[in-house]
Amino acid sequence: MAELRRNTDDERRDAHRDEAELWAELVGTARRTVTDGLVVGTSGNVSVRCGDLVLVTPSGVPYDRLTPADITGVDLTGRQVLGTLVPTSELPMHLAVYRTTDARAVVHTHAVHATAVSTLVPELPLVHYMAAALGGPVRVAPYAAYGTDELAENMLRALAGRSGCLLQNHGMVTYGATLAQAYDRTAQLEWMCRLWLTASSVPGLAPSLLSEAQLAEAGERLKGYGQRR
Hints:
Layout: H1 2-35, E1 45-50, E2 53-56, E3 73-75, E4 80-82, H2 91-100, E5 105-109, H3 112-118, E6 140-141, H4 149-159, E7 164-167, E8 171-176, H5 179-200, H6 212-222
Parallel strand pairs: 6-7
Antiparallel strand pairs: 1-2, 1-5, 2-3, 3-4, 5-8, 7-8
């Protein structure tokens, strides 16, 4: 009996340590979105999954004021189980991603170029092969008020087969297996949006676009990209 109690105590300590480490990483990622100019003020939000627990940035609190004591967590139904700060208003969007994909982290920002593109086209034109890293042409989810189930549903349709999408007149969402991967996809999508806007702004010229076949080829090549471990 004593051995069982010790094992249970050890598991609880490990869980708390994991939560604390993930919270620190989440706060660092959220602060990076500000430093890199992807959000202004308290716009945007970040979350990370730890088992059936979702740690998420709280609503309306500047990221540089967050401390370890401000840890905020909900279960997959949205019920708050950690902390006293109110979770982000975009919680329905984050939870929808976790319920329907294998995501372990989600990043949502109001990045300028991504938001600008979301007001112009229903899909980001294939201006660069890195679209393959997000699963294919990046779609724009139709507009719906922030924080609503309608927005979450629109986002899920735009995310089908993708790990990122734009939100019309709003911003973008990306997800990944880690916070680092989700953030990298956010930065990559913002860069592609900036690239297309820049190329499209030259008077009398239109950017060349990749074909679906060229994108598929790039996708295959990207599977072997990086260091083997």
